[in-house]
Amino acid sequence: MPDRSFLNWPFFEDRHRELAEQLDAWCTKNLPVDHHDVDAACRDLVAMLGNDGWLKPTAVDTDNPGPLDVRTLCITRETLARHDGLADFAFAMQGLGTGALSLFGTRSQQDWLARTRAGRAISAFALSEPRSGSDVANMEMTAVGDGDGYVLNGEKTWISNGGIADLYIVFARTGEAPGAKGLSAFIVPAETKGLTIAERLEVIAPHPLARLAFDGVRVPASALIGKPGDGFRIAMSVLDVFRSTVGAAALGFARRALDESIKRVAERKLFGAPMAELQMVQGHIADMALDVDAAALLVYRAAWTKDMGAARVTREAAMAKLFATDKAQEVIDKAVQMHGGDGVRKGHIVESLYREIRALRIYEGASDVQKVVIARQVMGAA
């Protein structure tokens, strides 16, 4: 039985505890899905999650608008990740992809949200470029004003849901000022003329990823989110909300690795006795449990702080993502070690966790970038 004691922490309300119980039961019944065809699996997961109401927290309800509940997003990602990494991916990208619309979209732009929250449309967040990943201010893609609209040219890469998304939130240089102050955000439907999938990208934990090419892509002025030059602020605001949830997904992976390890050492005998009786094994389990709880405290501290009305949680979210993803990697590595040969056997749960966790230390700001963010926040507050 997975440890649920953290749900009694003061970060949570009864509705969060009820959500965790109900979603866990749903996951036990429906997950994991077959990952053989990743595109089809993601489409099916989005439809399943939307049909059963689990995508509602990913975007604002335009009929009853209010702030996104980051604790709900984190609990959902942690729970899904513990059961199926691809289900977590499907959920997370619906939120990240539409985050700019939830936070800054006009009422007409937010018409997309009813579809994404119901699982009837798939969204994507198109920020990274071949020469600008974490260095967003170095973006090269352009959006040039032309009559009553804009023309986009350039490339985006490592775009999650690339190739299966129905809409892309695209960031491009409109040139109001140098660097970060000259970027803007746009809604680009997948069928827009001139937008093509230049390359599908394969990674160690299969997810739908692609490099996108924009060749004279024309969008109307109504596709602009916010004002010209707001793009960097919009992107950072979205990441400020969703970066904590990356730590939550890592936490879900780590909890599953710890659970599998506890079961393994209780059942497996070594030198005539259960592995669990070996002090070195007990030391590994203790280290894993310590890292899981410490990560959970940072993740839910960041989520609670945002939900309590903080304008920005840049420092808290960076700490949560950095610590949770790095420590989850260590926890899962220990799990692989304790599983011996089974730990590296293709298809084993800890082998899949080992592949799933690695990307989380890179996307939405690599671990080294988070250290820079934290240092600047700490020194700036001194």
From TrEMBL:
Q: Which is one Pfam family of this protein?
A: Acyl-CoA_dh_N
Fetch the InterPro entries from UniProt: Acyl-CoA_Oxase/DH_mid-dom, Acyl-CoA_Oxase/DH_mid-dom_sf, AcylCo_DH-like_C, AcylCo_DH/oxidase_C, AcylCoA_DH/ox_N, AcylCoA_DH/ox_N_sf, AcylCoA_DH/oxidase_NM_dom_sf
- Keywords, sorted A to Z: FAD, Flavoprotein, Oxidoreductase
Task: Give residue ranges for domain Acyl-CoA dehydrogenase/oxidase C-terminal.
Answer: 229-378
Residue ranges of every copy of the Acyl-CoA oxidase/dehydrogenase middle domain listed in the record: 124-216
Annotated Acyl-CoA dehydrogenase/oxidase N-terminal domain ranges read 14-117
Q: Which cofactor does it need?
A: FAD
Signal peptide segment: none
Q: Which family does it belong to?
A: Belongs to the acyl-CoA dehydrogenase family.
| Protein name (Swiss-Prot/TrEMBL) | Acyl-CoA dehydrogenase family protein
Instruction: State the species of origin.
Output: Mesorhizobium shangrilense
